[in-house]
Every structure is written in C-alpha cells, then in structure tokens.
Design goal:
By secondary structure, the protein is mainly α. It has one domain (2-343). The protein has helices at 2-11, 18-35, 38-46, 50-74, 81-97, 105-114, 119-148, 162-188, 191-201, 211-228, 233-261, 266-283, 294-307, 309-323, 325-343. Helix 7 packs across helix 10, helix 7 (119-148) crosses helix 11 and helix 8 (162-188) packs across helix 10 (211-228). The longest helix has 30 residues, at 119-148. The protein is globular and about 60 Å long.
C-alpha cells in the first residue's frame, strides 16, 4: 500500500504542471504566429457574442457540478460536498498532468480513499466511472457518424492529414472498445475469469514484463466487482444518466464558444457536436500530459471549417484556458494543502 502511495504522489507532484504548460504554450504560440492575422484579431474579438461566451462558462460550471454530484451519489453520500469537490478537482488535475492513455485509476482511488472511502469501494467507484465514460464514447461515436452525414472529417482532410486522422480515430475507438468490454466483463460478470485471461495472456514471452501488473489488475477487478454486487436499478439508472449529462455538457461547451464567434444553424451545431466526439476519442490515446499540444492542433483541424483558421485558433485557446489550465493551477495550489490534511490521518480500512 505504501509503495502504491509513493507512486501516486510522484504522479501528482505539483512540479509536473511545468511540462503540460510549456508544451501547450509552445504549440499555442506556434499556431498564433502561423494562423492569426493580428489586423483582424481585434475585430473578431470585438464581434464576439458575450452572451454565448457566458453560456460556455455556465456549461463548464454545470459540467463540474455534475461530476461532483455523480461521485457523491455513487458513494451513497459518504463523501461530503466539500470532499466531492476536492476529489473532482484533484482528479482533473491528475488527468491534466498525465497522458490520457496512461489512465488515472490509481490516482483517483488514492484520492477517494484518503477522503474517507475504503480502498475496495474507492477502487470500485473509479473503475465504474471509467467503464461508464468509455461506454459513452463507444455509443457516442456511431451516433456522431450518423449526425455528421459523411462530414465527420474536414473536407480538405484528404490532402492534409485527414486520412491519418480517420485511421487514428478508428484505432483509438477499437482500443477503447476492447479495453472497456474486457473491464466491463470482469467488473460486472466474471472477475475471476477476467483475471485468469489477462494473467494467461501475459505469460506469453513478449508480454511477460506485464505479468505482475496483470495479476495486480486482476485482483483489483475482483475487489471492485465484489463492491458492485447488490446495487439496485435506481443506482444504475442515476449513474448512467449522470454520465450522459456530464459528457453532453463537456461537448456543448465548444458549441457555445463557436457560436460566440459566428452564428451556427442546427445542422452545424450537430456537426460540431459530432466532430467534438471524434476529437475526444482521438485525444484519449494522446501520449502528452492532458493531451497538451494534441488538443490544440486537433481543435483547429476539426473546427476551422466553421469559423475560419484564425478564429478557430483563438477559440481553441479560450477552450483550453477554460477547460485545462485552471485545473493545473488550482490543483497545484490545492494539492499540497490537501495532502498535508489527509496524510496526517490514517487511511480508511481496506474493507468496507
């Protein structure tokens, strides 16, 4: 347990904010120099509809409030509102300083555990939210394809990097689907069968280096699965609806931002929503912390066709200023105080 705690503390070290900030700024400056015409920048900002910009901030608040409510509900109210807020804030911070592909199960479990939830229950809630979120991606992507009506990728993508982006999307979608179905199978149906499978697979010579990790993961899934048994239908309904709510709010934020710069009709809003869904699936396998740099480039690629390259660069920067950098700074500020508070008291018991 102490070894896992040390790994988590290294992962969420406040000093790690330097790299995602530096990488994000380098990409942002490059894009501004390359894409933004300073002569028209002022006029574009002057024409911005502040009502829709305010709506974007409102959607951001609603999204975070939804996350806080969801984790408090999933823990049956055992997390206070303040503890739920700390948990989500630090969870977002951990996501911002680690690559999306790495995953934050250990960090999120540590946060909930130190906020008073037993290890087994913390692990179960974190795995459940991961499965719910990934299931949303799995179902939203086909819906996005239908909404896009053949325009899922920008029309000039064939000559730029669209083919590679579409391939990357399908690779990412396939990886997420396989990963999620495996974990859902283990968490909800056959945890011991899940462990047997991944342990057996990692006995192959070229996968043997992950054999110990497979055993640990299998044991974690068995522990989490036991905590999930006996949940009532109302629990699952609220968990599913809250997941749909928070992710819909997350995606709607971009719709509000683009609308602030240029009026969009209903069809364009649906296409923006569809492309945002695809963009997020791609960002999930980004190797950079918090998809830093990747997200900035992807935003322009998917949305410059609606508002122009210059405005898309500005809108993308505002999007990252709203949804990424605040969690880096708030997390770096809150984390040391939170750690002093929670490490001064004993961790909750392993069992519920």
């Amino acid at each position: 347990m102490e070894e896992n705690q040390d790994k988590v503390l290294k992962t969420i070290n406040p000093n790690k904010v330097i790299w995602p900030i530096a990488l994000g700024l380098v990409v942002a400056v490059y894009m501004f120099v390359r894409n933004v015409d300073l002569d028209t920048l002022g006029s574009n900002l002057a024409k911005m509809d502040l009502t829709w910009l305010g709506a974007a901030f409102l959607v951001l608040f609603i999204r975070d409030a939804g996350y806080i409510w969801r984790i408090r509900y999933l823990t049956n109210g055992d997390l206070s509102w303040s503890s739920s807020t700390y948990s989500i804030l630090l969870w977002e911070f951990a996501s911002a300083v680690t690559p999306s592909a790495v995953g934050g199960t250990a960090v999120a479990t540590f946060i909930l555990n130190r906020e008073g939830i037993s290890f087994g229950r913390s692990l179960a809630y974190v795995m459940l939210t991961a499965v719910l979120d990934n299931t949303f991606f799995m179902l939203a992507a086909p819906l996005a394809i239908l909404l896009a009506q053949g325009q899922l990728f920008p029309s000039d993508s064939e000559s730029v990097w669209g083919n590679s982006v579409s391939v990357l999307f399908w690779i990412s979608y396939l990886l997420i689907s396989v990963y999620n179905l495996l974990f859902a199978f283990g968490l909800f149906f056959r945890p011991h069968g899940f462990k047997w499978l991944i342990v057996k697979v990692t006995q192959w010579r070229w996968l043997r280096r992950w054999h110990h990790l497979a055993e640990e993961t299998g044991n974690d899934v068995i522990t989490a699965s036991a905590e999930m048994r006996g949940k009532k239908n109302n629990f699952w309904l609220n968990a599913i609806l809250s997941t749909i709510f928070v992710w819909t709010a997350r995606y709607a934020l971009v719709n509000c931002l683009l609308q602030a710069f240029m009026p969009l009709d209903v069809g364009q809003h649906l296409l923006v929503f569809a492309r945002h869904t695809v963009m997020w699936v791609i960002m999930l396998i980004s190797p950079t912390p918090g998809s830093s740099g990747t997200a900035d480039l992807a935003f322009n690629f998917f949305f410059e066709g609606f508002v122009g390259t210059s405005v898309a660069t500005v809108a993308g920067s505002i999007w990252r200023l709203m949804t990424f950098y605040p969690y880096l700074f708030l997390g770096a500020f809150v984390l040391p105080r939170w750690l002093r508070k929670v490490l001064a008291r004993p961790a909750p018991a392993t069992k519920s």
